[in-house]
Amino acid sequence: MPTDLPLEPSQLDLDSADDWDGAAAEKPAADQQVAASDRIERAVHDILTEIGEDPGREGLMRTPSRMHRMWLELSRGYRVDPDGLINGAVFDVGYSEMVVIKGIPFYSLCEHHMLPFFGVASVGYLPRGRVIGLSKIPRIVEMYARRLQVQERMTQQIADFLQERLNPYGVGVVVEAEHLCIAMRGVQKGGATMVTSSVLGSFRTTKETRDEFMAHLERAVPRA
């Protein structure tokens, strides 16, 4: 069965972060942000005091407000409207071969220690006559990554979202990431990589389909 080559990350029609974070995709949250501002900044002030720092010293005076803005950015996945994210970019196309996008970078936060984990996600699906706009798959990854997460759940959420929205024959998602909660604390083993996968539909039930997906992930992407 002929297949399309996976697309290189530089080929993805990625929009800027500001555009992704626009009103079309993100639910309005101005009132909540104003209400949360004082609470977040007071909490950061208290944490700085508790660890023995002086929140009034020059380098830390604006840290609570910076932390407030940072947490809103890192958690913006909670406020994304999935319908706004897709924005009608699902098309009826007479195409039934595998579509694969690999090497999608992401950054997320572990919900156990609120430390970063980061890496790449690879997504494939077998269309049932409907395809999704190319830039939407990295946006879906971003939506789930920008929440407090565990990697296993994030992997499953990406797969479930595509299965529900496109009803393809099958979906496959593989995520590879490094976790700073392992590198910076506890066992302190930097460089360890965690790999998770979720396969649905024909990617689970048909070995040939699953093997084709995995072969795409192993194939080097030609460089210009």
Describe the structure.
By secondary structure, this protein is of the alpha+beta class. The protein folds into 2 domains: 9-15 and 89-218, GTP cyclohydrolase I, C-terminal domain/NADPH-dependent 7-cyano-7-deazaguanine reductase, N-terminal domain (GTP Cyclohydrolase I, domain 2, 2-Layer Sandwich), CATH 3.30.1130.10; 30-77, Orthogonal Bundle (GTP Cyclohydrolase I, Chain A, domain 1), CATH 1.10.286.10. The chain is 39% helix and 22% strand. It is built from 9 helices and 7 strands; from the N terminus they run H-H-H-H-E-E-E-E-H-E-H-E-H-E-H-H. It has helices at residues 17-20, 30-50, 63-74, 82-86, 136-145, 151-166, 180-183, 202-205, 207-218; strands at residues 90-92, 99-110, 116-126, 130-132, 148-149, 170-179, 193-201. A 5-stranded mixed β-sheet has the order 5-2-3-6-7. Helix 2 packs across helix 3 (63-74). It starts with 16 loop residues before the first helix and ends in a 6-residue tail after the last helix. Residues 1-24 have low confidence and may be disordered.
What are the SSEs and their pairings?
Blueprint: H1 17-20, H2 30-50, H3 63-74, H4 82-86, E1 90-92, E2 99-110, E3 116-126, E4 130-132, H5 136-145, E5 148-149, H6 151-166, E6 170-179, H7 180-183, E7 193-201, H8 202-205, H9 207-218
